[in-house]
Design goal:
Blueprint (H helix, E strand, L loop, with lengths): L1 H27 L12 E7 L17 H8 L2 E3 L2 E2 L4 H10 L3 H4 L29 H7 L3 E7 L17 E5 L22 E3 L2 E3 L7 H15 L7 E6 L11 H4 L10 H15 L26 H34 L6 E7 L8 H4 L24 H7 L12 H4 L3 E4 L14 E2 L3 H9 L7 E2 L2 E2 L9 H4 L13 E5 L2 E5 L3 E5 L16 E4 L15 H18 L10
Parallel strand pairs: 1-8, 1-9, 3-11, 4-5, 4-8
Antiparallel strand pairs: 2-10, 5-6, 6-7, 9-10, 12-13, 14-15, 15-16, 16-17
Helix pairs in contact: 6-9, 8-11
Length: about 575
């Protein structure tokens, strides 16, 4: 009797999956892609502070053969946008709703006194937010997560509380990448790790990208035999500061960056044009003016150049190590016969970081930032603004700013059973589109504004599947508006026009003054080099109205006295 019941359950499960797959196929259409017979696995890979041009296929010189190979059987999204900073992006990825609604109107670390207690500024993924992990788990998926959580510190705000069946996570926004050295604990070592809700301590042999990959493979393998699909969220912490990487990988880049900022940036732009990432006539963004805080390469002493080059060598090694571990994960899926039925999406959480690491992790007696130890255990270094500009090539600025360098990130997608790469997708898309995409892939109903009997923030993005499968060549309607605000900097845009207000600032303090709006034609000037507001007053006024509507809809809380 038990054997008969088991067979019946298996037969019913296969039948349900077949029906769901047919529903997906009917709803999205099938062009070059054939829908899988079973519901697909979903693998979401998120890098941390990776710049637009760091991946080889986006013009970088860093070795990323596994991501490049993924592109060869998938597709590049050249116009994919996120929030200017990490936890806001992560909140939108999981909830499908704007981060001002989801509890991360700003990062918990940068919350201002006038924002405390305001809806959407709780500093964690709030109770009104959906979680794609909960929805997929309810729909019959295994749900796994490894890496950076950054969406709450308490048990009630944990991955377990938000639908992840198994998780190994760093709770805070950053940490050292190596396990701590006994007796020599630095400020970057003082981070909290939990596995399935329990506090864990890192072994001295730990390295972030490798350790997270080991855990995720273990989670998937443990349940592989039961035939259920999985949702795996690999939230790597590379290449976030402090910059640290294995010695043997750093050695791959020795001397590679001795030519300096401008030479490397020019190389990347030339490759981007040759690859078709940007048009041949693309005008790159202007760089920050030369100043004592942002000197030109030629102004540095020989020792300063040596140190600066070493920073980029370590950063490149972190990206190469990240790529190698993504390759390990994909190889595991191939060896076990799971890869063909897996949807893979790769992106960065924001642009590259120009922040000072010592502001967040002060140096102490156990740090060793000597040239010989840079990139190793106990070193405490960051990329800096000039290399961040190179990483964001060909765009302007970097993490923390809604200019293109802060919000345009490399994105790669591969559909289940896809074996031939497709042309680039240049349509405007965003991290808000991922949760609806995952639901449609899984055949799980979007709950709208109510979930488990409670009112929730509905998802506001649109599934990317029609675009990815060739059912449509457009994604957002021409009149659709996309808005963003972080620390007082803001933009509102449609497919063509971007109205942007950026104030350069020092530290995490938000902008307190009125917006200095500039208008850019993104169809011809993604480098944001020419303000055309004066010649297009009607467009400026339309977008300003859109900004005010966006601000009211999502509950943006600006500094006192600032109304728009």
């Amino acid at each position: 009797m038990n054997d008969r019941m088991t067979v019946c359950r298996r037969t019913l499960r296969v039948a349900v999956r077949s029906v769901l797959a047919a529903c997906i196929t009917a709803s999205i259409g099938v062009s070059a892609w054939a829908a899988p017979a079973q519901r697909p696995n979903i693998l979401m890979i998120l890098a941390d502070d990776l710049g637009y041009s760091d991946v080889g296929a986006f013009g970088g010189e860093i070795r990323t053969p596994n991501l490049d190979a993924l592109i060869a059987s998938g597709r590049i999204l050249t116009n994919f946008h996120v929030a200017p900073s990490c936890s806001p992006t992560r909140a939108m990825l999981l909830s499908g709703a704007d981060h001002h609604l989801s509890g991360l109107g700003t990062m918990a670390e940068t919350l201002q006194i006038y924002q405390v207690g305001q809806p959407g500024y709780e500093g964690y993924l709030n109770e009104r937010s959906l979680s794609i992990a909960s929805l997929l788990r309810d729909g019959g998926y295994h749900t796994y997560m490894v890496g950076k959580w950054h969406l709450g510190l308490t048990p009630g705000q944990s991955p377990q509380a938000r639908g992840f069946e198994s998780s190994f996570v760093l709770l805070q926004g950053g940490a050292a990448h190596f396990g701590p050295t006994p007796g020599k604990i630095t400020s970057a070592d003082r981070a909290s790790y939990r596995e399935n809700g329990n506090i864990v301590r890192l072994p001295e042999t730990f390295y972030s990208s490798t350790g997270y990959t080991d855990k995720l493979i273990g989670y998937i393998e443990r349940n592989r035999a039961d035939g259920k699909p999985f949702f795996a969220y690999a939230a790597y912490t590379a290449p976030h500061w402090p910059l640290q990487a294995p010695d043997e990988t750093i050695d791959h880049y020795r001397g590679r960056y001795d030519a300096g900022y401008d030479a490397i940036r020019d190389e990347r732009i030339a490759r981007q044009k040759a690859l078709g990432i940007v048009p041949r006539d693309f005008k790159p963004a202007a760089q920050l003016p030369v100043s004592p805080a942002n000197p030109a390469w030629e102004q540095l002493t020989p020792d300063q150049r040596k140190t600066e080059a070493r920073k980029m060598e370590v950063y490149a090694a972190m990206v190469e190590s990240l790529d190698a571990n993504i390759g390990r994960l994909i190889d595991y899926l191939k060896r076990t016969g799971q890869y063909d039925n897996t949807f893979v999406f790769f992106a960065s959480d924001n642009g590259p970081s120009g922040e000072r690491v010592d502001v967040f992790y002060p140096d102490g007696p156990d740090n060793d930032n000597s040239y010989a130890n840079m990139g190793r255990r106990r070193s405490n270094i960051a990329l800096g603004t000039r290399w961040a500009e190179v990483s964001a090539t060909p765009f302007r600025l970097f993490k923390g700013y809604p200019a293109e360098g802060g919000v345009s990130v490399p994105a790669i997608v591969r559909l289940p059973r896809q074996s031939v790469g497709q042309t680039q997708a240049n349509q405007l898309a965003s991290v808000l589109d991922l949760a609806p995409t995952f639901l449609q892939l899984a055949g799980v109903k979007n709950p709208g504004s109510r979930y488990r009997g409670e009112a929730v923030n509905p998802m506001t993005g649109s599934s990317l599947l029609p675009l990815l499968t060739g059912s449509t060549t457009t994604h957002l309607p021409d009149d659709a508006l996309v808005g963003e605000e972080f620390a007082g900097n803001r933009y509102i845009r449609d497919n063509r026009w971007k109205l942007l207000s950026v104030h350069m600032k020092q530290g995490p303090q938000p902008v307190a003054g009125p917006p200095d709006w500039k208008l850019y034609d993104m169809s011809a000037d993604r480098g944001e080099t020419q303000d055309v507001a004066a010649g297009n007053p009607d467009i400026v006024n339309r977008l300003k109205r859109g900004w005010r509507e966006y601000m009211a809809r999502v509950g943006v809380v600006l500094a006192p006295g600032v109304n728009e």
